[in-house]
Design goal:
- The protein is α+β, with helices and mostly antiparallel strands and about 775 residues long.
- It has three domains: about 1-205, no CATH class; about 210-425, Beta-Lactamase; about 435-675, P-loop containing nucleotide triphosphate hydrolases (Rossmann fold), CATH 3.40.50.
- It has 24 helices and 27 strands.
- The strands form five sheets. Strands 9-10-11-14-13-12-18-17-16 form a nine-stranded mixed beta sheet. It has a nine-stranded mixed beta sheet with strand order 21-20-22-23-19-24-25-26-27, sandwiched between helices.
Length: about 775
């Protein structure tokens, strides 16, 4: 059966997150694939909507036109109205004229008019049907006034029917929207122009599932704009929402139709090139290989179909095809935005846009509506690449994406009853430095100097805080304060610390990867954290960094700390909100004896702060606390926790607790092991803090953020250490002010010059 040139059956209804998607296959259609441009397309949709229910309409050819729920409802209304008029037979004789014989002469023409309006025209151009109706009402009322008498009596039923049809039309959103438009115009435009306003489709490539939403963009305040992988990223503030909006507009969503066609054909050809069970690192390394294959295929396809493409267009299309075959699809753009820290796709996939956490703007809702099919494809890719199971018996898949410096956790039924969900944690590709923390007021110069001093003097340090407080970032900054002539062993269950980068800038560092704590599937190849830690302690005299102290490895760690087997320095992170909560967790939750916990020298607490109840969270170090040794059961009740610095939110400052320093056992311990006096220790701390602060001053003065990156701060730190060593050799002691002065002179006259020369000069005015 044909309906206006279409074959019934060239559509399918898909369920996506509880929404019914009516998808038309328009590839072989003799007409267009646009509801706004082609009346035949509207006729087909309205005819089908008379028989089935749908929340969304998609017209698919080389690219897809997506009509959202509001637009689909407009066409559903037209279909329902047509059905209603048909059931009521509004064109039957009783609705056309009075029953007197003299009225029969009007029946035929009125019947034809109503059939045209309420049955034929409404099926493909409901706006034209409404406008035709208004004109008929106007004509009939004029005739009734002019002719009166018999004509008036004969026409009353007809005019009532016309008014009834008009009221039904005007009760629809379709006509209400049209009337809103018409009131703003001086003359009535063609209905095709109105459809272009109210039925403007979202356009996307047919081989990409995700939809991009750009509604209400004109009423948003632009906060930021930048580019990621040639995609435009905009961050907006919404006048009525507490979270910011993160909009991404990739080039693949705005290409010419002929390029969509070439890409679609290319993807069909190269479908067999997709990798199977190979490692993630292999895929990352071979990405360029696949892009070269795709570029060659695109060139052949374009030549075959006589589509002209420039070389740069070939390369861009190859990158896009690679993104949606061997890559991670549209997620790859978000995973490459290093201003993001987290990406979340909640179940059921597709019910609402995915959301992200931005390092500057906090939680943001994106304009990306992911699909169930894409999610299933992504799970299959991750399962194949990781070699791990993911099913109802193993509903958790947790591993790292080393090519994107990202940790991912996937959950599914029965753990997630609404379907598959994803959480991605993006790691900073370069480690945070103390100078960078100073630059964003995460801590102050004195705290930076104190942390650097305690790391250098081998104090066992635990960094604590809630998720997102910055504790892992602070841990990486602490690693940078370890002398480069000391070997470091890093143990992590998720690869967050940028060990390869640290190796490249001169650190002697070995990484151990342990079993994930949240994985339901325990493979034989994964080593438990406590077993890995025992191995680490046998790998020689080394500083030990534990990515996070979570479970049984805590006992092993503290045993090592007590007997001194861990080597020079021990640093780790643990979830908590204060120094006391760290003791409570380590002792009461993780089973470490209180006597062993005393091996901890220092607890550093980080916390997100909401100033004055603001929506924005700002990360701050709020506490530096020494763990004293002479207490028995409860460190807080017995004075075993000595605050060295405490944060005052009113002043937004981390303040030194000078009176508490008299009770410090840690400074006395360091004095005994180094021979430094209290005065010398404080001069050292202040010198370190002043050096970090000077780096920030140079960054701000010359607007060169790279100065504060680890590859450069480590050079500066090493120079300060060497100047100290030189002072000891020449004078037998350190003049801290003199060393700092020499270092600043070197910074300005040697180190800084390379940056100033490399920085592009501002264009001359005029």
């Amino acid at each position: 059966m044909d309906i206006g040139g279409f074959k019934v059956g060239d559509y399918v209804v898909k369920d996506e997150a509880g929404k019914r998607h009516l998808v038309f296959d328009c590839r072989n259609c003799v007409y267009g694939a646009s509801m706004s441009d082609d009346p035949h397309c509207r006729f087909h949709a309205i005819a089908i909507l008379s028989e089935i229910e749908a929340d969304l309409i998609i017209c698919a050819e080389v690219y897809e036109r997506v009509y959202d729920e509001d637009q689909t409802k407009l066409l559903v209304e037209a279909a329902s109205l047509r059905q209603k008029f048909n059931v009521q037979s509004v064109w039957s004789y009783k609705h056309l004229a009075a029953t007197q014989s003299e009225c029969e002469q009007y029946l035929s023409s009125r019947h034809d008019t109503l059939v045209k309006i309420a049955h034929d025209l409404i099926a493909y151009d409901p706006l034209a049907a409404y406008l035709t109706l208004l004109n008929e009402i106007k004509v009939e009322k004029t005739k009734m006034r002019e002719l009166g008498g018999t004509y008036l009596n004969c026409t009353r039923p007809y005019i009532q029917t016309l008014d009834y049809i008009r009221k039904n039309f005007e009760a629809t959103n379709l006509i209400q929207k049209t009337l809103d438009i018409l009131t703003k115009l001086k003359e009535v435009p063609a209905t095709s122009d109105i459809y272009k306003l109210i039925l403007e489709a979202e356009v996307k490539p047919s081989f990409i599932g995700s939809r991009l939403l750009f509604k209400e963009i004109e009423q948003l305040e632009l906060l930021d704009e930048y580019s990621v992988l040639k995609s435009n990223v905009q961050v907006f503030k919404h006048p009525n929402r507490t979270e910011a909006l993160y909009f991404v507009n990739p080039p693949e969503y705005s290409l010419p139709p002929e390029q969509y066609f070439v890409m679609s054909k290319t993807k069909e050809v190269v479908a067999g090139y997709q990798p199977g069970k190979i490692s993630l690192s292999t895929v990352a390394k071979s990405r360029r290989y696949f892009e070269r294959i795709y570029e060659s295929t695109i060139k052949d396809v374009a030549r075959h179909y006589n589509v002209k493409l420039a070389n740069e267009e070939l390369a861009e299309l190859a990158e896009i095809v690679a993104r949606y075959t061997v890559g991670y699809g549209i997620l790859e753009i978000l995973l490459s935005d290093r201003k993001l820290t987290d990406i979340y796709l909640d179940a059921p996939i597709g019910q609402k846009p995915l959301y992200v956490v931005h390092s500057e703007y906090g939680q943001c809702q994106t304009n990306i509506l992911y699909t169930k099919d894409e999610a299933e494809g992504l799970v299959s890719k991750m399962r194949a690449m990781s070699g791990r199971p993911f099913d109802e018996a193993h509903p958790v898949l947790d591993f790292d994406l080393p090519d994107l410096e990202t940790r991912t956790a996937v959950i599914g039924p029965p753990l997630s009853p609404d379907g598959v969900a994803f959480a991605f944690r993006l790691h900073k590709t370069t480690p945070w430095t103390l100078a960078q923390f100073l630059d964003v007021d995460f801590l102050n110069p004195l705290a930076a100097g104190m942390i650097s001093f305690f790391i250098d003097t081998q104090a066992s340090t635990l960094i604590t805080g809630s998720r997102g407080s910055g504790k892992t970032s602070l841990l990486t900054a602490c690693i940078l304060e370890i002398l480069q002539n000391i070997r470091i062993i890093v143990q992590e269950d998720t690869l967050e610390i940028p060990v390869p980068y640290l190796k490249n800038i001169g650190f002697n560092i070995q990484r151990l990867k342990t079993r994930s704590p949240i994985s339901v599937s325990k493979t034989e190849s994964e080593v438990a954290p406590d077993e890995a830690l025992r191995t680490a302690l046998r790998l020689g005299d080394s500083a030990l960094v534990v990515g996070e102290v979570r479970s049984k490895e805590a006992r092993v760690l503290y045993e090592a700390m007590r007997v001194g087997a861990a080597g020079n320095i021990v640093i780790g992170t643990v979830h908590g909100e204060s120094a006391y909560s760290v003791w409570d967790r380590v002792v009461n939750d993780l089973g470490v004896p209180t006597t062993s916990f005393k091996a901890t020298d220092l607890v550093v607490v980080a916390r997100p702060i909401r100033f004055a109840g603001s929506l924005k969270k700002t990360r701050r170090v709020v506490q530096l606390t020494e763990v004293k040794k002479h207490w028995v059961d409860d460190p807080e009740r017995e004075g075993g926790l000595l605050d060295l610095m405490l944060y005052d939110a009113k002043k937004d400052n981390l303040e030194l607790m000078e009176d508490n320093l008299k009770e410090s056992e840690l400074f006395a311990k360091i004095s005994r092991s180094t021979g430094l006096t209290m005065k010398q220790m404080w001069e050292d701390i202040k010198m370190r803090g002043s050096a970090q602060s000077f780096l920030v001053e140079l960054r701000r003065k010359h607007n060169i953020p790279k100065i504060l990156e680890a590859e450069n701060t480590i050079i500066c730190n090493n120079k300060l250490i060497l100047l100290k060593e030189q002072d000891i050799r020449e004078n037998g002691k350190i003049d801290y002010n003199q060393v700092l002065g020499k270092w600043k002179y070197w910074m300005q006259n040697n180190f800084l010059q390379d940056f100033v020369k490399a920085k592009p000069s501002a264009p001359k005015k005029g």
